[in-house]
């Protein structure tokens, strides 16, 4: 149905989850409310995760290339973050990441992660705590990022971080 495909595409562009039901008797597809337990086959189609990358080094370039290769949205640094957004900081100078992390922690982003060692993470958390973020908010910040930590190769760091982001999104939307 061309109208349904157009509506699904519109949901994707507007970054909202489409909640659909197929009537098994008629084959008719219609949008339903999230809490509706109507009769038929139910489909929940979330938009793809959007990634906001902060950094200028090889890790940031490698992650941006992977995000582009997967045709995932890449958000600019001043974009509005929603519950389908992930934020990654890939700075070696950790003072430069604090403004981006502060904005991310104040948003609904499903994933917030930062490059660095456990020692860097402890210093980062202390700085963010000093800036007024509470423990519940700080618990959302992942660091060191990735599923294969510690790593030094920029491509491995990027692949590892993206794997962690996609796994978190799958857990959220499954």
What structural category do the secondary elements indicate? alpha/beta
The number of helical elements comes to 6
Query: Could you spell the SSE succession in H and E letters?
Result: HEEEEHEEHEHHEH
Computed over alpha carbons, the radius of gyration is: 19 Å
Mean pLDDT: 93
Which stretches of 5+ consecutive residues score pLDDT under 50? none
Strand order of the largest sheet: 5-4-6-7-8
Estimate percent helicity. 40-55%
Ends apart, CA distance between termini: 25 Å
Largest sheet: 5 strands, parallel
Quaternary structure: single chain
Number of strands: 8
Beta strand %: 15-25%
Shape: elongated
Would you give an account of this structure?
This protein is an alpha/beta fold. The chain is 40% helix and 18% strand. The protein has six helices and eight strands. Strands 5-4-6-7-8 form a five-stranded parallel sheet, with helices on both faces. Strands 2-1-3 form a three-stranded antiparallel sheet, covered by helices on one side. Helix 3 links the parallel strand 6 and strand 7. Helix 2 packs across helix 6. The two termini are 25 Å apart.
State the main characteristics.
alpha/beta; three-stranded antiparallel beta sheet; single chain; 174 residues; five-stranded parallel beta sheet
Q: What does this entry show, briefly?
A:
Helices cover 40% and strands 18% of the residues.
